[in-house]
Design brief:
By secondary structure, the chain is α+β, with helices and mostly antiparallel strands. The chain contains 5 helices and 5 strands; from the N terminus they run ααααββββαβ. Strands 4-3-2-1-5 form a 5-stranded antiparallel beta sheet.
Amino acid sequence: MNLFGSHINNDAIYNFIISIGSKILFGGAVLLIGIFLINLLVKATKKVLNKAYNDVTLISFLSSLLNISLKLLLVISVLSLIGIEMTSFIALFGAAGLAVGLAFQGTLANFAAGVLILIFRPFNVGDQIKSQDLSGKVKEIQVLFTVLETEDNKRVVLPNSGIYSNIILVNSCK
């Protein structure tokens, strides 16, 4: 007799532990193989992008975005494979994403504009540009902001959403 006053079948407990243990081991193996394959895919993508674009900023951004996205999908898939119901977690992630998106609305606008600047290249590092009544030589193009150096050697940091949503006058050095 056990503490709960009922007889527990040892075979049922053994089968339950074997069933759960095998799912966890299988999920762990899938996770390890998945991480290995994702790393190979990210390295191959970096090589292809290096040959196609040879732009360190864009390659770094795209490869880290691919890496994080694929690993998040892998973890969700492995948890589902183990037997954990993922619908409520995905709904929770969606709600949290909406809340974070609303909280960081300006930052996300700068991020989106930075991605568009990096992809479409309306100007490059070294170009002389004028935007928002500010002008200077482009020193850096980051994902959230662009750094200009003015004629009087001042550093101006402009948010990318402001640059991308306004008229940009570009004097290219190339």
